[in-house]
Write the structure tokens for this entry.
Amino acid sequence: MNHTPTPHPRRLRAAIVGTGAIARHSHLPALQQLATEGELEVVAAVDVDETSVGQFCADAGILHAHTDLAQMLRELPIDLVAICTPPAVHRDQSVAALRAGAWVWCEKPPCPSLADFDAIEAAESEGGPYAAIVFQQRFSSSADHVRALLSSGALGRPLVVHCQTTWYRSKEYFAVPWRGTWASEGGGTTVGHGIHQMDLLLDLLGPWDEVRAMAGRLVHDTETEDVSTALVRFANGALATVVNSALSPDQVSRIRIDCERATVELTHLYGYSTGNWRITAARGIDDEEASSWRSFPPADVPSSHLAQLRELVRSLRAGRRPRSSGADGRKSLELVTALYKAAFTDTAVHADDIGPGDPFYSALHGNTAGWAPESAAPS
């Protein structure tokens, strides 16, 4: 009996836009790993700084160095564009790539507003190309295990939740010209740092109903906030506290979910594996059942850009919408936007409250006096 070997799919052609630290340390290694596996090849890089992109390409063995994204997209057939630039340009760069027929993998925060996000989604096509946001914290074997436990009801109803992103950023960090301003970064530590843990929390618990919040500029001389706190009511009834800080010397990222039958806790900093989780059973729970909850998959896949990129490439080849795109990617920006509105207006904000016509739909500062730049705030 003759067997015709299955041909290996052609290598996808990838390009990197922005050649700073996040490209060098996160995107490029993930892309290179898939290149060694025959999935893709990185054929081009783009940066407005000709010296930077030239050195980046020389170091990585990338053939085509460009300073103009539109020109690169005209001259080269590209399947996937990794966007590693400041948030203010994410919208235009994502739309340009999508219109050129390339799928997009865009660093967080996705863009400075829900209006920008909706413009990106409007440039997508059925079956692709799609634009996915880098929310790598939800891509891991251990998160899959915990998500299954929660969704199955094995741990009982989620009741009390804590989501913490308490990091430290120095004055030198904010000395970079594009940091700390609404125009270039879109927001402060809430959207720039805390969105990762909030995204993972939403991925584990599902939709939220209501948020109340506060925000402050306690240390840094920036337009945006350096700390925020929030109370969030989830659709399943759980009550959560959310803390985001750029002021905390003892840095930690943490999610804790107290359910009826167990507490699930994740403690890490910028990434995690199975060993960062702890599941504590309530009194009276059978030891064998509790042990089964702690039986994480033996093949530990840590959270990482690589884990998300693998899923994205599978979706690209299948022509299906990837996770963290469309409504699935928008939900985290929705919560972040509601948090800003709740903090700046001192009101409770409910899911689906913010749409076209709402000032917070177009900018996370919502043109709020004392927060918005003078050129944006009403007189």
